[in-house]
Design goal:
There is one protein chain. The radius of gyration is 15 Å and the shape is globular. By secondary structure, it is an alpha/beta fold. The protein is 27% helix and 25% strand. It has a single domain, classed as YbaK/aminoacyl-tRNA synthetase-associated domain (YbaK protein).
């Protein structure tokens, strides 16, 4: 079963409705504005970071189109951060660079990646993320997104930028 099928299975078993939006491959938040505007979802990006010792990992999902201050994130988590390597993304989230999203947390059954989200994103009615494939965006309600995170025995840690 491929990652999209596994994510869909998890959604179905947790009664999470979603709409599939097909589009050209997006490797960054740049270019996603049209998809976001047309589908009433915020433009966002998910960054997977790690500490120097490779013992702690974080995913930060933030509004797209704005610079993300890694120094501020380092201060927040109390450790110097850098971007996770492709092999880390594959190991923990079953994803490749350019396709990272909170849906990948389904594959992190040992909770190695701590999840943070920009607080402003939770004010939107809908969320939309890649299902470990950057040629699709799956749109769900923010309420169902919170249900998804809870189904993974996780909490959404919020941050203001």
């Amino acid at each position: 079963m491929n990652p999209q099928e596994q994510i869909a299975q998890h959604f179905q078993s947790n009664s999470i409705d979603y709409k599939i939006i097909e589009h050209e491959a997006l490797v960054s938040a740049d270019g996603a504005d049209g998809i976001s505007d047309e589908n009433n979802i915020p433009s966002q990006k998910s960054l997977v970071l790690r500490n120097k010792k490779k013992t702690k990992y974080w995913m930060f999902t933030v509004l797209g189109g704005q610079q993300t201050d890694l120094r501020a994130i380092s201060d927040l988590v109390g450790d110097r951060v850098s971007f996770a390597k492709p092999e880390d993304l594959k190991k923990f989230l079953n994803v490749t660079p350019g396709s990272c999203s909170p849906y990948g947390l389904i594959f992190d059954t040992d909770h190695q990646v701590e999840f943070w989200m920009q607080e402003d994103l939770l004010d939107f009615e809908y969320q939309g993320f890649h299902p470990n494939d950057n040629t699709q965006t799956w749109k769900i309600t923010t309420k169902d997104f919170q249900k998804l995170i809870n189904s993974l025995n996780r909490k959404i840690k919020t941050v203001k930028f």
